[in-house]
Structures
1.
Amino acid sequence: MLPWFSQQDYPLFLAPMAGVTDVTFRTICKELGADVMTTEFVSAEGIMQADERTRKYTEFTDEQRPVGVQLFGADGKRMGEAAKKIIDWKRPDFIDINFGCPVNKVVSKNGGSSLLKDCPLLATTARGIVEAVGDLVPVTAKIRIGWDFDSINAPEVCQILESEGIRSIAVHGRTRSQGYSGEADWDVIDQAARSTSLPVIGNGDLSSAEIIKQRCESTAVSGLMIGRAAMNNPWIFREAKHYLRTGELLPPVTLEERWTHILRHCRLAISSSRYGTERHTMTAMRSRLMTYAKGFPGSKALRKELCRVESLGQLEDLASANLGRE
């Protein structure tokens, strides 16, 4: 059993999300109670070609541990070599394989969720990485419940991955054809969890502490993975842990606390220099800022202003103006 499952009843994972779960956001979510996290997915081929931009996606801090690096690709041998390079660089706590991404640019390269419709290739891909990594670190995987509604096969895939030496599996409760629309099917997630002796982490539509507790109690999962809900409400980790522990809901996060968090997120992003200059960083943060602002007083007008933010000073002025309306 991986140690993060034995340390607590239901560890809470931050889902890897491209363009979202960078080092800065992971730092914030860890502080707010996330137990385990994974980097944004990285291309195994990019690692093998020593692409510096790709390598940046593998960065993490020791404070974020346990943390894994997620790889995508469809050549187990090459992915195994890439995994060993990453382990030499950073020594993550685990390597995660992306068998779930629905995005066309990944699927078109036979990566991500495309392997769910080719189980023999999925098996050899997993085997190649597990054999290459050996005892250095555990290998985990993230899948969807199937390619489409006519080929839901998560329980079968979990059994295949277990036989190939994978140590835990996160299951997103949608098919690839759904993308992020419709509802996550937690009945299939539960079936997948019961089909294997491995820890299964459930993922999909975990938008509140109450829902998280209900999924813990009604399914056989060993952990929960929170994705899009954390983009607007990273406090969900703190709220869920408190509710699981006490049965009591924490009071809502105040508007002032939300603005304080937004400003800190931007300051950390600027200091990380990941996006370059302050202007480039604030431009890159615009979509995140608009997500944070959902539900704020006057949010429609505010989001139009956030679309034009180019400096931290502009954002500080918006915060002051909007807190004055509270």
2.
Amino acid sequence: MKAFSETEIRSLVSLLDEEDPRNLDRIQRDILEVGAPALPFLDELRVSGAPDVTARADALARRLHFHALQDDFRRLAAASAPDLESGAWLVARFGYPDLDEAACRGRLDALAEQVRQALPADPSPAQALQKLSSELFTVLGFCGNEKHYYDPDNSYLNRVIEQRRGIPVSLSVLYLIIARRLALPVYGVATPGHFLVGVRLGGVTSYLDAYNRGRIMTLADVQQMLAHGGYEFRPEFVAPATARDILARMLRNLISIYQKAAQADRAEMLSSLVEILQAARPAPAHPAP
């Protein structure tokens, strides 16, 4: 691929006011070939250009950001066990391409440290889990966004942190990645229709509903919840979910939201990310003959 100088890139981007459709198409293809180095110049044009030029620059910037996001998803998916938190920030970048991931991670580090400092010396896992739940759901007031359930921001972890509202899977992911900082025995549970957090303490498994302010559920409660949702219980519904499956679920929720909002282009882009995750899924191991 040809290397472009800053002067060449700036000159190329300045041609987005071209009126001839054929010439404009060539210019846009050339900008896409330049790739990420064109983004600062597109951003300048988005601020200072005429409305039609600004729209072209914005569309190109979104495509370039998405191409970079696809590459990052491929790198994440190539791991045998993708990192859940890294994947959650990638999902958030779809809605917020300029996301400051380091700052977001820092806020969660601080929250985990706040919980740690409030614990007695050598706390039990039960004490740490209780304190984490108290901090998140009572002190900070994290809960389900019942009023605006289908707002895409409920699926973007940065916005969940800022608004303290989300949907079951995003709030559960938030809980899981903070709990991981505290080395707590929790895991994701991909029950149909309502994601939960599994908790193992003293050989006993219970379930935490992050959407409903950390409500603790027994297996019987989960079975009743599923029955109310029209699902017949199956043991695999409460098996630990892999990070790959959790991230795919987050993406599919967004796909459904954008489809409902008649934003088919965004839904298609997200579908390509699901395909990347699933295509890289390791083949199941077969027993030796």
3.
Amino acid sequence: MYRHVPTYQLYGEETGKEPDFWVHCETIKSRSSRHQWEIRLHRHESFFQILYIEAGSGDATFDRKSVPIHPPSILTVPPGLNHGFRFSRDIEGLVITVLASHLSHAPGERGSYGEWLSLPHLTALDPQDLDADYLMQTVKRIGNEFEHRGSGRNELLSSYIALSLRLAARISHKDNVSQLSAEEGEKRMELLRGLIQRHFRSHKPASFYAAELGISLTHLNRIVRSTTGHTVHDLISAKLVEESKRELVFSLASVQEIAHRLGFNDPAYFSRFFLRQTTETPRAWRMKEKMRLDGR
């Protein structure tokens, strides 16, 4: 049994008989920081919410289900749903609260789009995808338009919100990624990790792995983001760093020899790569790690 779940217009503010606005926009940080970065379980009877996560992390709770949040992503929350959030202190993004009656389509309205609006969605955004990039820019325009109150503000806000939701719905259904079962996603991740294990020394691009799996790079990145919060390129780099560290600690080979073993033709480039990934040069990391293992 649930304890009492409060109903708000905006989280933490008492609801009145009638809402006195049709749209509100603020940064996620501005409200969550007032509540120790936790928005406890609550609901809105009349409002639809859009959350754009640009940086940071957290988790979202929809009724009893909790899901991790990784940037960039967009969440949509229909009216009447118990929901809550926990955010990291470095969270960046926007929360847009819209009176549901002002949406171009009502949540639950007949048709796939109305049905999509009636359910909560957490949709990962790939910046390389044109629709996702346009969606991110459009959400930012909502924030700017709301803040600056220029002429035609209401019409533009209404158009931007409708466009944002349509794009979010398209992206969440694109390539049927949102319909993948957990088992299918795990299977593809397992295959991807096996491919990276076999080919990471040859520095194959992310597109190679997508082709090997028979799917588009955008599709693959979306699967990887939804599972790990990272991109295919991030996983390849992480594998190179992991193997670099193993070689630095457990072999007597020089940094130059290790660089060549890992497929780097230029040892200086290997050092820059390692520094970028770890904030330390290979030699400095090796020395510090060996001292740590020796107990000094």
4.
Amino acid sequence: MLCESCKKNPATVHSVVIKNGQKREQYLCAECARQVGFKFDSFPALLGMLFGKENDIISAHKCSCGTDMVQFYESGLLGCPNCYNEHREELLGIIKRAQGGRTEHTGRIPSKREPKEPDIIARLKAELAQAVNNEEYERAAELRDQIKSLSERKTGPDALNQ
């Protein structure tokens, strides 16, 4: 796509301006974008490297604190908690690209973690209650022994005899 201003260079800046609920898009080359006041510092360049675009979305819409997306691209910081609501659409686009299309944080907990002993004991106690309720006494005895074994390991053999 060519720059809408000079119609010579490829458009590398996608400008989205939302004013009074009206959305206006403009596609400019870097040179024409600089002429109308867009700044390209190291942070926007980093965003461009990460997301494969020089500047994807730059909105002139300002939050009540005065922060706009140009300031966010320059500093990497939002001005207040309300900025997350005011710039929601632009931020979701950035988050989607960074998270491979997902917008919900999944965290860093490994998907396959070993359950801890208190979790295992609680699960075994629930199974024991179910086995007794179903009159499965052999299964209940096995579960009771497993619980006793884990409890002894956890607190020592003398802890159960008190």
